[in-house]
Amino acid sequence: MNTQKSKVSVVLPAYNEAGNIAVLLEKVQGVFIKEGLEGEVILIDDGSTDDTAKIACEYMKKIPFLKVSRHDKNLGLTKTLTEAFKNATGDIIIFLCSDLQSDPEEDIPKLLRGIDSGADVAVGWRQGRKRFRFLGSKMFNAVSRAIFGLDVHDLNWIKAFRREAAQNLALKSDWHRFIVPIAAHKGFKIAEVKTNWYPRKFGKSKYNLTRVPISILDMIVLKAEFMRGK
Questions:
Q1: Percentage above 70 pLDDT, the chain
Q2: Which of 29, 124, 197, 217 could form a disulfide with 158 if both were Cys (CB 3.0 to 4.6 A apart)?
Q3: Contact 120, 161 (CB under 8 A)
Q4: What whole-number distance in Å separates Cα of residue 41 and Cα of residue 11?
Q5: 59-73 in b/e burial notation, b at 16+ Cβ within 10 A?
Q6: Shortest CA distance to 164 belongs to which of 183, 192, 185?
C-alpha cells in the first residue's frame, strides 16, 4: 500500500492537556499539508477537568478535518482507543500522544514509512528517554519480550495501523499496553521505527510505575488466553 494514496486517521486521546493541544493540532495540520495527506484528525477528550476540549473545539474552525468528542468522565486509554479505532474511517490509523513527547512533524512520516515497508502495525521506539522512566519501561518491555517472544523494544508508545489491524484487536480493560502482542498473535506483521522522545513542557505525566506489577500479571493472563487459542 502506498500511504500517499491512502486516507489517514490521526487519533489523539487527551486528558488534561490544555497546555499542549494548540501546538499539537497545528503540528498535525502542518504534516497533512506538507505530506499531502488526506483524512481526518480525531481528538477524544477523556474527561479532562481543564480547557482541553474547549481549545480543541476552537480549532475545529481552523482545521476542517478535525473531529472532537468528549467523555463526561475519565474512561482510560483502552476504552478511548477502542472508540477511536471503531469510528476512524482511514485506511491507516495513527495513534499519537497528546503531550508532545512525540513530535507529529517527525513521527507521522516515520510511522507511515513503517507501514509502507509492508507492516500492518508500525511501532515507535523511543530514543533519549529520562532514566527513571526508562527503567520501569525497560523492565516491562523485557518481560513482554520474554513472555510473548516479540523482538519489540517499546510496546507503550505511538503506533500506526492498517485499518484491519486496528479494528480487530478486541482490547479488554487496560490492555492498550498489549496491542502489539495481540496484533502479532492475530497474524499481523509488526515493524519498529525509532522516534525521538521529548520532555513535557506543560501538564503532568500520566505515567504510573505502580502499574508495572499488575501489567505483568495481565501479560500472564493474556499469554494463557493465547495458549487456549483465543
A1: 90
A2: 124
A3: yes
A4: 6
A5: beeebebbbbebbee
A6: 183
| Residue 124, all three cell numbers | 515507535
Cβ count within 10 A of residue 45: 28
3-state secondary structure of 161: strand
pLDDT tens for residues 119-172?
999 999 999 886 545 566 677 778 877 889 888 889 889 999 999 999 999 898
Residue 144 in contact with residue 110, Cβ under 8 Å?
Answer: no
Is 10 within 8 Å of 52 (Cβ atoms)? no
Each residue's pLDDT tens digit, 38-56: 999 999 999 999 999 999 9
Extract the C-alpha cell encoding 32: 497533512
HSE value, Cβ hemisphere, 13 Å, CA-based, for 186: 17
